[in-house]
Structures are given as structure tokens and as C-alpha cells.
Amino acid sequence: MAKKEEKVLGMDREKFRMFMGKYGIGVILLIMMVFISIMEPAFRSGSNMVNVATQVSINAMIAYGMCLAITTEGIDLSVGAQLALVSCILGQLISNKGWGIIPAIVVAILVSTAWGTINGFLISKFNMFPFVVTLSTQLIIRGLAQVVSGGQAIPITDTTFKQIYSAKLGPIPFPILVLILATVLMYLVLHWTKFGRYVFAVGDNMQAAIASGVSIIKTKTATYAISGFLAGIAGVIFTAKTASAQSNIGVGYETDAVAACVLGGTSFAGGVTTVPGVLMGIFIIGFIYNGMNLIGIDSYYQSMTKGAVIIGAVLLDMVMNKKNG
Amino acid sequence: MAEEMKKKEEYVLECHGISKAFGGTQALKDVELLVRAGEVHALLGENGAGKSTLMKCIIGLHQQDEGTIQFEGKPYSVKGPVEALNAGISMIHQELNPEPHLSIAETIFLKREDTRGIFLNKKAQNERAEEILRKFDFPHSAKTLMKELTLAQMQMVEIIKAVSCNARLIIMDEPTSSLDSEETEHLFRTIRDLKSKGVAIIYISHRMEEIFEICDHVSVFRDGTYVGERSMEGVTRDELISMMVGRKVENVFPKTDCEIGDVVFKVEGLSGKGFEDISFEVRKGEILGISGLVGSGRSETMRGIFGMDPITAGQMYLEGKEIKIKKPSQAIKQGICMVNEDRKNFGLALHRSIRENMALPTLPLKQKAPLLNKKQEEKDCLDMGKMLTLKAASIEHEAFSLSGGNQQKVVLAKWLLANPKVLILDEPTRGVDVGAKSEIHSLMCEFAAKGMAVIMISSELPEVMGMSDRILIYHEGKINGEVKREEILSGDENQESILRRAFGGK
Amino acid sequence: MKRRILSVLLCAAMVVSMAVGCSSGDDGGSEEKKEDASTQEEGSDDSAKAGDVNGDGKIVVGYISKNIVDPFHAPINDYAKETLDGLVSDGTIDDWTGVLDGETDANKQSDRADECIAKNCDYVIMLPAEATASDAAVTKMADAGIQVIVVNSATDSTADVAMAYCGPNDVEAGEMLAQWVIDSVPDGGKYAHCQGVIGNSAQIQRGEGIENLMKDNDKFESVGDYPCEWQADKAANVATDMMNKYGDELVAIICDNDDMSSAAQKACNDAGRKDIVCVGVDGNQNPLQMVKDGDLGATVLQDGPGQVGAAIDLIKKALNGESTEKEVMVPFVLVTKDNVDEYLK
Predict the structure, then answer these.
(1) Per the domain annotation, does B291 fall within a domain?
(2) Closest by alpha carbon to A48, among B443, C20, C25?
């Protein structure tokens, strides 16, 4: 019981505990990167790193929206279906109706934002459970996607549109630029605006937030609207990546987003999240897929590994963050 | 059998040389505690003095670094509240956390359910609970759900549960903090009854009157150290306070008279859920006390004024102009602020920083640019913290790291930053230690002196009487009398006369 | 403050490591790519150079599955694993990627394609999740100089950019389904159609095949197409609903796969309607067992392992310097009680 002067890695035990509590996820990420690099040198290559960053950009958009929703003690299960709807709208407008790319993208993102707004309004105005609301709207949104696409896959042959995924600025592909921009904006929104403060306050203690004059309806509606907006952007990148509009895409994408949030220290009890944390969570998920495939770990074990890594990381985080008192 | 044991041992609980450190902080240092069988033993000390930590060591939530605990003459070591209860020690927490959907019987027999095979034997369980409840003259049936009970009744259920588990030592942490006078009296009767049955009670409270009324001995703590034990007979209040704070506290209520100006805020015929036809006014520089039993409509009226609950009739006037308030943000904009009685649920976002909590209500007023001006905010918060003598290592720390008194100061700070014209304080000193309590009282006087109109709800009669320029007394949703400070000072009105009005008399 | 600095540092470290990797890797990468392109050209008319497509002295084969969970793809993946492991141990190839999980998702398949490129694969066998959406993965790899063999269903530009296509003709499968129903129920009647995931190429083409035969057949009347997402339980629900609605008029349920048809048939049998003819495509073990037991009339077997086998044979040929076919069609087989033992494991 009386361990006091124990040292870990040359650090005071207590300091080490606090350090890991705060930056544990970053440390896990670095350890993972080093480990995979040793196992498979191809992982280290610049092109592979760019690949992973490009790949995770879609998940990152969704995860950012998700972390907002989770921080207000909610969840947004409709994001996967939003991807499908955005994709189908783009396909229908660009390929079948001959719209320009920009108006089509604007309309698609407006629609996904509108659905996010509807989610948020239902949740905040009628005090419905976010899980139930988004589970239901998810069905409606996917159904709409099927109606819009007529159940068919619509190829998008427009090369400019496909460029959204593949175009590069110097060595950096466009989706990474979007990712960087979104990360910066999210950071500002969460940590440097009134809205961000409201999100945290509502998530931590809704009653106290109301008593402090915070509008729950405005805050939550905006939260889900942003989630919808980000899902819209993700949908555009997704559609450009596969150059095809389909109603069956994006199934299960909310799972990876939730996992990234949790890895990044987002609390399901609400009120706690950080943008750098979520970003690192996203990269951990990306590296798990990428790394295991490069190393050649059997796919049958990948799903298990992913689950185990998430539980392990969260557990580590909990142990490290264990509060006195 | 247990009775015989106790007769042999003078002390039912002996703690010797208990030390406990968290990280670098020494929370307890070589602490003693001796509790006799069948006595009520008070623990006294400011928040952070180490009372809670010691209690947590006793019920096994913490393990002490050094020292020994003996219970009923035998070495005692448990790993948690359940083991402690099995050993015969139970703790009734200040903030009760019952499962609202369980019945009384289910709560009493939680984790030791009556079973027949794998099935619950609900009938037998209810009958047994019914029997125990009868012994305590409990007014509800065992099937009543916890959520239908008042706080006092929930607490009673906890006590009944402890007794039914054959607890020989019951720790009560601030048991009267949410009770009104009548409920407190009922609790005391129960405590005396338990005492006569040989149950020892450790009684933690900040209310000196209660300690003098109910306790036999008192142990005083200061800054994690043990100051000493006194018999309640022969010790004076001033002596205890000076033991606690290490200095003499002269005036309990620092009420200063300041100039009372024009009417700032006035309500006429206000009605809503739990209150009816309420009219009053409050002036600049005035402290208006509101007294009455819990549930008499005091808090409900204020919640209505602040826009937390709907108002069905009546008008409000601020500085002569009629105002409409439908939600708290409108009240804040008008300059009406309210410190809620329930700090945990309505006061603070505990996992967010002190700074964020302080700045929250005034964000729309002070932050007009798209991005936050964090420098200005930091300055405001630091200034306010200094003014309120907030004890915190940094304003970036999470609110839950603070003691109750300092949390209350953060709540005060967030409203003072709004620079209110009318400040409503609902039970501002609940669960706050003596030192912080008197600091908050001084602050209230300062606010009034600056020209704020202060409305204070309090269940503690001495506090209301000591602090208010005028007292409104509530009875069943209506105002039943008004008492002025002069009348108190002159002795025309006293505790009894106010209490009488609160119970509906004239 | 400290915390912020550290998190910024961490992010910076990541970015730097990426950027450094980028610049150093990029020169090498682009050079390699140029080389790739040239070798590929050579390779295509003169594969005799030991078939080492990217010229790095190693033969690496990639395998991107459609998924690793459904009963149709599991044996295909197992067969690929067994065969490719065999090739590695006998030295024919140096390495393979293992079964990469496509999760029935074109987006994920595109990510897997990135990994095959990163691993310097010479040949990649891919079972596309979607005809259109998975095409990005195929073209991406082809652009990187990889010889892609598309298996099971073709993507839009397979014919143009891939080395070969090995697969069935799903329209033909749909026609076989319809033909079996027409043959089994000479008098005709009403039939229902349980669809796979809408938009899936197999769903589209099998539906087309069914339509080809049924639309001109006066004896049969469709009561509707029901999206069942390839799922057995949904098809079983359709079967019970349709029996309730149409009673004896319902004579057949055609399903896009035989997980669904076996479940539908079971629902019919349980309801005492053994006369209803349910049939689907794939030849999974459960339906085959039902055929053997006489609970299911027939199922249309798609020889998945055969398709992958054909793809691997093409790689072997290429490595031997032989010329390879552009398209290998692996036929469907109608499995009835008479020949079920050949396919039932």
C-alpha cells in the first residue's frame, strides 16, 4: 500500500500516471505505428501513409459529427444512411439530370444537413432518445436513397467529380486537405466558440445548462445538423471514391465512427471529448485495418483484434485516468 | 449476543493513527476516532478537514495507508460498503441515490433478496418489509416506489435498511441538509430510539444547533488532523468553532446594514405549480429572506420567476417596467439570476473546468465575436475567483475537484459575472462548511451594498433571521406573513413566531 | 497549457512522419511506377519474362475477397487460401497478401486495393462487391501496373483494364431459375421474387434473367419483387406473407440466392405447402443438404471455388510465360436429387 517513490521510465509514478492519462491515446498510436513498421516495412512508405490518411478522411468526417452527438449525451446512427442518400442524390443529379458538379454537391449536402437538423429537432424539442430517433430516421433516409436511385447503381463518369477523391495539391490528395480543414474547424468550433461551450455544458449537465440560460433545442439541433453536414461531405468524398451512386453503401459506418470517438476519449456520459483525441482515434482504426492487412494477419482475426484494441485502449485510459476520491 | 459484546467493550469503534495520502496530498494524518456503543458521536470540521476520507476508510471505499481500525474489539478491515454492512457498519450518504423505480421493500432488501429457488419471493419480502416499516411508523406501504417518497422519507428508508441489516454503527453524513424542521425533529426521534437500542451513530453535520441537541461527544478535525474530542456537556459553541478553524469566530452572521433604495423588482399575483397569488417587491440593497417548510412553494416561485417552470398568472416588473420571462436566458438578459438549491443537478457541469462553468451564463453577453476572447474571460474569472476567495489550484481544473464550499463559490461567480440586478439564492449555504458559510454570508452583504437586490431562500431559521432585512414566510404555496429585521432585533418576532406562521398559524 | 503543447507535438510528429515519408517515398514511388508501366507493356506482349510484373524480383499475389462471412464466399476464400498457400510453399510465388476482407463494401475494397499497391503485388485477384462502385479499386490497381483478375462478377471497366475476368453469367443463372420453375409447374400460377441487396450486380442480372423468361410466359404472373437483402429470414417472411395472401394460387418463390430459397422453402414446408417451388442460386451447403433430403427441389450451383481456381490457373500460366485468356466463364450447374452428392461435402 505504501508505494511512494516508485519510478516508471525514469518518471515519478504519479507523473507517469497523469501523463498516460492525458496522452495515452497518442502513445498507443505511436507504439502501434512503430510496431507495424517493424513487422512490415511497406507500412512506413510515404505513399502508404498518404493512403491511410486519405482513406480515413471519410470516417473522420463521420466521427467528428459523432463525437459532437456523443458529447451531448446522444448518438447519430443515421450517418451511414446519410452517405447513401448523398451518393444517390449526386448520382441522380449529375449523371441522370446533367447538373453541374457544384450545384449537385450543394444540394446533396443541404439535404443531409436538413436531415441532421430534423434529427436534432426531434431529439431536443420532444426530448426523444437520440438512439431511437436516429435509428428511425436512418431507415427513412436509406429508403429515400433507394427511391432517389430507383434501386439501381448509377455510375458517375464525370472525371472532374472523380477528381474530388484523387486530385492532389503537391503530394497531398484533396480528401486530406478536407480532413485538415475539418479538423481545424472542429477544433475551433468545440474549443473556441460559444456553441462549443454549450455542447460541453449540455452534455455534462443538461439541467445546469438550462439553468444557465443555454437553449437545449438550439444546441442539440445544431449538433445534429453539423453531424448531417459532415456526413454530407463524407458522402461526397465517398461517392467520388467509388464513382458510383448506390443506396446500399455506408452500412455500419457509424460503428467505426463511434469506436474512433471512444478511443479518442469521448465519454458516453457526455461532456467530454477532444478533437485531437478523436483524430488519433480515427488513425488508430485506420492503422488497424491497414497494418493488419500489410502484415498479412488473417481477416478472420481482424475484427477480433479491432474489438480487443478498442477495449484495451479504453480500459488503459480508464485505469490511467482513475480519479482519486 | 451483540449486546453482551458491547457491554464488555467501552468503544464500539476505535481508529488509531489513521493516515491516508492521495498522490502528494496528505488527506489524513495520524487521526484518532473513538466511538462508544449507543452514543451519538459528532464529527465536526470544515470541508476538506478529512471527515469524509476517514468515513470512506471505515466503510472500505478507501484503504488507509497507516493505522488500525477495531470494530467491537476485533481488528476490522473491509473492501467496500457491502462488506462493511455485513460487518455491522452502514453509511447514509448526504446525497441519496436511490433507484427510483424500486419499491421500498426492494430497496431495503437490495442484494439480499428473499428468494425461493431462483425466483424472488416478493410476497414474503413485502410482508417482512411491512413489518419493519410498522416498527418505524413509516407512513407508506412497502410497495410504494422510491420516486414517490420525499427526500426525508428516502433517508428514513436508508436508515431502516441499515437497522434491518443489524447495523451496530450508522454513519450519517449531513442527514438534515435537505430536511425541514419537522422532518429533522422526526429524524432526531429516530436517532434517539436507535441510541436506546444500543446502536452507535456517527453524525456529520455543519449545523451546530443540531450537534448540541442530539450528540453526546464530538470529535473535531482540521486540515486532515485530529484536534480533539469533547463531551457535549460543558463545551461551548465558540470553543468548537475555534477548534475547527484554529481562530476565534465572533459574529456568526456578518449582516451589515446598508442603504435600501428604490424597488428593483416586483411581482403581482404570480401563480404556477405549487404557488398561488404571490405578490412581493424587493429593493436595491435589500436582502429579502424567504422562509417556509420544504415544499411550501418557495423554490417553485423562484424557479417560475427565473423561467425554469411555467407561470400561469401574474405580472413581473423590473425597475417599473413589466417583463415577461419564459426561459432562463431571458431572465439572465434582464439581470435576474438564480443560484439553484440543487448544486449537483442545476449548478455545475462537474467535468468541465472552473473557467467554463463560470463563463457559461454570460457567454451571450460578453462574447460577441465569433471566436471566444479567452484572455478577457480568464481575467474576469480570475478577478471573480479572487473576490470570492475561491480556493483552487487553477481555473482550468475540473469543477468536481473542488470542495462543496468552493463549488458553491463557482456557482456564485457565474452569476455575479452577469452583474445581476436581482440575485436569487436558493439555499446558498447548503452542504457548505462553517468557514465558507460565513464567507458566503459576508459576500451577500457585499452584493447588497453594491446595490443588488438579493432574495435568499433558506431552511435554516437562524440564517434567514440573521441575514435578512425582511422575511417572507411561505405556507402551502402562499405568503403567510412578513417579518422585518427591526421586529427581530426588537424581539417582537422570534424563531417560534416565524415557525408558527410557516405551519399556517398567524 | 502543457497538455496543449504535447498534443500539438504529437500531431506534428504524425504530420512530419507522413510528410517525410511522402517526399522520400514519392520519388522512389513515382520512379517505380514509371518502371511498372514499362514492364507492364512489355509484360503484356512478352510475358515470358518470368511473369514478374513489377520487376522487383518477387512474385506477390493479392487477394481481395468480397467478404469473409457469407456461406457462398467462405468456401471460395478457403479454396483460394489453400491454393495460394500451396503456391507459396512450392515456390511458384514468393508471397501473397492473405485474404483481405472487402466487407461487401466498394469503399473498403478500394482501401484494400491501396494496400495491395503498397505491398507491391504483381497480380491481384478481386471479387468485387459492386459492379460500378468497386470499379475504382480495379482501375486504381491497373493504373499502378498490377495485373488484376476480376472474379465472380465483372466491374464496369473490367474488360478494358483488367488482365482477365473469371466468373459466371448471372443473367444465365436467372434464366436457369425461371426455367426450373417453368419446368416444375407446368400449369403455371403466381410467383414471388425475393431480391438480394438492391443495386448489387448479381441481383440486377439475376433479376434480368428471370424477367427474360417470365415476361413472355402467359402462365406465370409475378406478385411482386421483394427486397430481402440476401437474407434468409426476410425471404422466409415473404414466403409466409405470400402464402397468407394468395393461398393456393401461389406456386413458386424465386430467390436471388439459395440461402433465401432454402429458408422460403422451409417456411412453405412448415406450413404444409411442399408444393410451392422455391429455387435460388449459389449451392450453399444447407440448401444442398435440403435437396439431398428431398425438402428442396433444386438449387442452381455457382462454382465459386472453380472461378477462383480459374483465376489462379491464369496466374500460373502467366508465370510460365503462356498466353492467357481474357475471359473464363465458369458454368452454373442445376443441382437436383440426382447429382447432389457430387457437390455436398
Answers:
(1) yes
(2) C25
CATH architecture under which domain C170-302 falls? 3-Layer(aba) Sandwich (3.40)
- Say whether A213 and B349 touch across the interface (CB within 8 A): no
| Per-residue pLDDT reduced to its tens digit, B159-179 | 888 888 888 999 998 888 777
Interface contact A148, partner C, CB < 8 A: no
Q: Is A272 on the interface with C (CB under 8 A)?
A: no
Contact B351 A272 (CB under 8 A): yes
On whether any CB of chain C is under 8 Å from the CB of A304, the answer is no
Residue C4: per-residue pLDDT: 47
The 3-class secondary structure across A45-106, one letter per residue, is CHHHHHHHHHHHHHHHHHHHHHHHHHHCCCCCCCHHHHHHHHHHHHHHHHHHCCCCHHHHHH
pLDDT (tens digit, 9 = 90+) per residue, A211-226? 999 999 999 999 999 9
Q: Do B346 and A271 touch (CB under 8 A)?
A: no
| C25 has a chain A CB within 8 A of its CB | yes
CB contact under 8 A, C22 and A244: no
C133–A246 C-beta distance less than 8 A: yes
Pick from C98, C131, C199: CB nearest A296 = C98
Q: Are residues B240 and B269 in the same domain?
A: no
CB-based contact A194 B372, cutoff 8 Å? yes
Polymer length in residues for chain C? 345
Domain interval for residue B502: 251-335+420-506
Q: Where are the domains of chain C?
A: 56-167+305-329, 170-302
Question: What phi-psi label fits residue B223: left (phi over 0), alpha (psi between -120 and 50 degrees) or beta?
Answer: left
- Does the domain at A52-309 match CATH 3.30.450? Answer given as no
pLDDT of residue A12: 61
Give the distance from residue A269's alpha carbon to the nearest chain C alpha carbon, in angstroms.
23
Chain A nearest C-alpha distance from C107 (Å): 6
Whole-model pTM: value is 0.73
ipTM of the complex: 0.84
CA distance A193 to A211: 20
CATH code for the domain in which residue B496 is found: 3.40.50.300
CATH code of the domain made up of C56-167+305-329: 3.40.50.2300
- Exposed e or buried b per residue across B54-71, where buried means at least 16 C-beta atoms within 10 angstroms of its C-beta: bbbbbbbbbebbebebbb
Residue with cell 424597488: B263
- Give the one of C68, C130, C201 whose C-beta lies nearest to A300's C-beta: C68
The continuous run of DSSP H or E covering B68 comes out as: strand B66-71
d(C-alpha A239, C-alpha A226), whole Å: 20
